[in-house]
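Q: Convert this sequence to structure tokens.
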Amino acid sequence: MNALAAYNANATGAGAGIAVIDSGIDLASAEFEGRLSSASQALAGNTSIDDADGHGTAVAFTAAGRRNGAGTHGVAYGATVIAYRVDRPGSCAEPETDEGEGGCRFGTDAIGAGVDAAVTAGARVINISLGGSEMPFSLQQAIGRATAAGIVVVIAAGNDGTDNPDPFTNVANTPNANGAIIVAGSVGTGDGVSSFSDKAGTGAATYLAAVGERVRAPNADNLPRLWSGTSFAAPQISGAVALLAQAFPNLTGAQIVSLLLSTARDVGAPGVDPVYGRGILDLTRAFQPVGTSTVAGATATVSTTGGSTGWTSAPIGDARSLGVGAVILDGFERAFAIDLAQSIGRAAPARPLGNALTGVTRHTSFAVGGTAVAITLQPTRTGLTLEPTRLTGRDADAARAIAGSITQRLDARTSVAFGIRQSAAGMSAQLGGAREPAFLIAQSDATGFDTAAGSSMAVRHRLGRLGVTATAEAGAVLSPRGRLMPGARQWQRTPYDRVNLAVDRQFGPVIATAALTRLGERDTLLGSRLDAALGSPGGTSWFADAGARLDSGGWTVGAQYRAGRTDARVRGMTGSGKLNTNAWSADVGKTGVFGGDSIGLRIAQPLRVASGGLDLTLPTAWHYATRSVGTYSTQRLNLAPTGRELDLEARYAFALAGGAMHTNLYWRRDPGNVAALADDYGAALRWSFGF
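A:
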């Protein structure tokens, strides 16, 4: 039954009473020392509860025998045993014949008295490893009183090898069950149904199997024996009930039954079937969260079935925390301690080369007076379709739609531009007449994470040698949707907005630039999307940029540095966060090396979190008595990666066959700021021509 999962959760059954209605218990046995309830009694006229047959002792031991490091032990080895001897006086002394006659006999009146006594004694589970003909209505009513009081009743299915359980178990299909009865069938250690066990049949909805073959337990003389029968599958289930009752005191009897049935290991035909019913008892599953889980004291849901509580982006890369502990409540309101940081997914770094080269495109433009229009087109078999402008590898992930820009010169010093599916940074460079070397991978002014530009505008005004440019842009951050297969791209789009103010100044052949940018993200944090369990943070980022470029004698030398500060907004819980980021690039190039050619080299570090994280106030203790959070503590979710991506790229371009041939070689260390990833390298050849 995989009980180790329960024991690792410190479940022993302590404080839970298991009522065993059977042939009594061996009073000389040390297996129940200190755990045999004083409420135990003989109810059929016997003078003592001392076991004359051994069946009751073996059943009680299977459910709750002590754990002392020798031999075997019971499932709930810390539980209290309430033994009710209900065998007719002298019947156990009669030898049992091959026809099943003789041996212990049990009256239903005594069994009913034992059920009522168990209610009075405060038992959490009643084990009835007995069977036979249809249960009289008086006993059904007694069981109804027990289940209505929140007690679970476990009844052995029977050992006739028939397709249906004993008629004695039919009470499980009546209103008296109150959802708190389990019918116990037997399997072997290989999960095959036992040859002697009655199968689920008409009782499949409440039928649960456990190992009932060769179960080691003492007899009435305290000698170990191997017992077989559904009588010994039942107490294993009863012990499991006691473990759950102790570990999760909020559970009602009906909830415990529902939990055990819904977490059973499915064997035989899929789903509920007429052989195994609901399946085989599995405590590993029963001691895991079931159903929708939420953070204790909040409504934020948490995935506990292999999903994630969010996805990191490239600036955060392989950031890992030592542990962000929290208490969650599952669908049964059971408290579990988990590490929220362990379920954060990491999106695979983009393959920028493929994105940069995707598709055959045509760039067309025209100018009339002070107005210029530029559009990117992509040919198809039936003609032309309007496609996104392909400015960078990251921009290639934008949704396919009309893309283009319109620039208008207002006067000799002022120009304005409007763009659709085009970044404001690209239009700003266009208005300023800036010339950037044609690098594919090592970007000097990239966002650092996947975005799709929507609408944008830019205004530029010159004051002598000083240029001032203001831009605004709105678009969508692209974050993974669900768990991604290798190479898959399924994006969830959430809005962002960005405004920028930049100044540039000419100093002879050198142009110096400085800029201040505000980036607002509603549901993401530097492109990372974290779920409600981690505060669903959005963020406001401020970036300061400084750069310079020298153009002289065919040489171009440039450098740029960005420093950023991001303030996180946490929702649905108490918390805050600040992140410090940076990025930089440096390049050198030469035109006319061998005539009409050009060459260049750039090294760049994309945007990366240098330090910082989220400080979240999370529940770390839960009180079942008051059903409330007992303790809150502040947990730090580190968002600074250990990896540091560096991009090195060389380019060479020359005239060829009426067009231009561009060659690029690149190498990326720690792609996506993930130290464990292998280096990424590649080459590209592109030929373009005008017409």
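Confidence is low (pLDDT under 50) at residues 380-402, 483-488.
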